[in-house]
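Researcher: Sequence of CoA-binding protein follows. Predict its structure.
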Amino acid sequence: MTENPESTVNPESTVNPESTEQQALPREYPRQWTADVLASDGGVVHLRPIVPADADLLVAFHNGLSERTRYMRYFGPTPTLPPREVVRMTTVDYRNRVALLAFLGDEVIAMGLYEGLAADGKPDSAEVAFVVADDHQGRGLGPVLLEHLAGAAAENGFTRFEAEVLSENPNMVAVFRDAGYQINRAFDGSTVHVEFLIDPTEALTSVRNARERASEARSVANLLRPQAVAVIGASTDSKKVGNVILANILAAGFTGPVFPVNGAGVVPAEEPERAVPGRSARQPRSKKREAPPSVRGIRSYPTVRDIPDPVDLAVIAVPAAGIDQVLDDCLAKGVRTLVVVSAGFGERGTAGLENEKRLAEQVRQHGMRLVGPNALGVVNNHHEIALNASLAPRIPGAGRVGFFCQSGALGIAILDTAAHRQLGLSTFVSAGNRADVSGNDVLQYWDTDDDTDVVLLYLESFGNPRKFGRIARRVASKKPIVAIKSGSGAMSPTHVQRTGPVRDDRIAQMVLEQAGVIQVETIAELFDCATVLAYQPLPTGPRTAIVGNSSVIASLAANTARTSGLTVVSSVDLGPAVSRQELTAAVAAVMTDDEIDAVIVVFVPPVAVDSADYALGLMEATRPAAGGDVPVKPVVTTFLAVEGVPDGLSRTGADGLPVRGSIPSYPTPERAASALAQAWRYAQWRARPDSQPAAIPNVHPEDVRSFVREVMVEGENRVLSAREGAYVLEQYGIGVVPFRDVNTMHEASAAARELGFPVVVKSTSPDWVGRVDREGARLDLSDATAVINAFNELQALTGESALQVQRMAAKGVGLYIGVTDTPSYGPLISFGLSGRLFEALGDRSHRSIPLTEHDARELVDEPSVQVLLGEDGTDPARLVDLLQRVSALIDDVPEIRELRLDPILTSPEGIAVLGSQIEVGPVPTLADTGPRRLG
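Model: Prediction complete. Tokens:
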């Protein structure tokens, strides 16, 4: 945007915030436009709309720009901003003119704005511009501002951005192009005119997600791969938390410098002299030079500001009341990431939760990321890092498994169990109260981390559920994710009360499986599954051979394998007196059999023999004939009932720790078979053809968005009328069977004649819809007299004055589609047979939105529905299309909070939607929609 500011005004002048122009404009900006975002270097930046009170901040920001940056932005020298221009830039209407500021602390570091071009005859276009402080250029703030300005402009009905750019400023044009927009350029001498549509496209969304992934991964890398660490609160008392953390960092051999910060280690200069035993209080102190204060033999500092070298990570172990000053010190020092192990926040009730929210806000305002509070800490076992910034007394050796959990106490137990099983970890994050860094952030890091092959999650909640599903699906396509959900902790109390914990567990399982996540119920199962995934290849099929010297143990393994989805094609009983050579030969035979995909070895050694010799034979039998150490098909065993990787079955790396090709052992055959079956189910999911949400033709999202926002009253939830709901559905190609709302018998009779006989007269009240006895409807009415009688009967029965007359649809199977925006899983689509009986029985299948074509087909193929559909000859493709249209509607218009299509009649003649109920309301703050943001 070209500006023509006057340059004769004192840059120190301030602007009167009560000017007439300012008073005439709205003061309250749209709160949903505020956001914490990540720069490309992983640092946090706060965005919010500009307000008149920002005038002095804007002047200071402008004064801090270099001469070249001002020239590129304003097409001229522009050393100062005149008051008139400052007023114009800070006084906007948040509709035709919008400006966003980017903050680090209290300092403005970037600004972006758009202004509508209606006066130029372009009512749908706006001119856009932004400028970034010199010290913050190259951090990707231009694309971030552009995303958020485009989101605000789209809300206000704009569809196109235009910009004027100097020809000598190609970087600005690159910002538009690299953001994923299809730009049109026109050269006019020294300037370039750029135009592009701002509507979200697949390419644009892909670019945004890639930028989000890179910035979030970078922010976690700053946490897990620091160059230097400060321990703030590093007490000299070995029983204190800060001392323990410092000791663990030193014991792990962290490769960078470690700086204890202990304010108590320095006596303030103004502190009066104290009496010393054995010396008169009046005697002067010795002039002998005292050694610098230290903790565990390392020089300590009174504050992090006093550390002479840069610090990337600060581990904070000070009381909650003292954290504010620590944050200011960390900002001044340029610390990037924090681990707060201090308690006294959300786990302490309402007051603690408020302190926790304030802490998270302050950390982000300071541009940092936070693990915690009340966190156990973080671990990175990479030999170039060797970081144990945690309270865990024992951590596993290096490996290729990443682990995330919240609970500190549980984290200690998990790390100990992993060490016991010789399951090596690449990295570990215990997020505590998870005020900032969440499992989603760490998943983004593991997605790009070459040192992590398997991801383990202990979930107490899904955080941002839509985002979790999107990220998990992508990560699981390359790396297995195993998750354990802690009871009903992933659900809201209201949702649990409505569905019941058992049913909600089923929902969680369906949602996780949809994203390719392997769900287990116990910590033992978590490690059982992780061990086979970490050390063995995935099975290419379900055909399993069982080899062993105990028929009883083999039978137990076979039973579990069959019930878990494996196919037992061979069971070889070698007898209790089997020799080492016989065991080796039998295992080698099944390993080379093309009709076998996986092997379970059950082995109880003969009495008084060396089991190490049998282990050696088993390792020889599983080694590929073509060379190498990793078997071509997975092998699990119950060798000596050992849990983990026995020494004899371990292939070790240079550090002596187990690597791929090691054979996991389980204490029972059931656990061995179950772990193998989980690996097979994951392999099936991963082998599916890639499926994306379909592009639905002939839909009108903008019309629906505009309509929904108009009918929402003062931001509160509202249930649409039947006619309003039918209009919304029609914009997505979902036709409701024609109906009329009637209040008298004469209206009912007239409506029936207009619609054409036969018709239905029915109640639309939730109390009567879906009843087994169907008392709320009178069907197949063939004349006006029948309609009038039915109307009078239903009015008397239901007590309702308003009823509905609807054209009679072809008979068919009654189905139900519902969508609920749950806090646990985000928008959740449910599908099943219509009626309260089936709802009470929990006969519903569930998936997260958006649905891929494969997701929709899975819903249709659920057994209870498929049996009936197969009997009446319904084309499943029609239901798949309907489900995808509903998914697209909810995905495009997140203001739709609940939707019910009930009943839906499906028959060989087609699909008939007989009724709908739609509730609209404000978009949840955790919705994974619009421009990228933290949260």
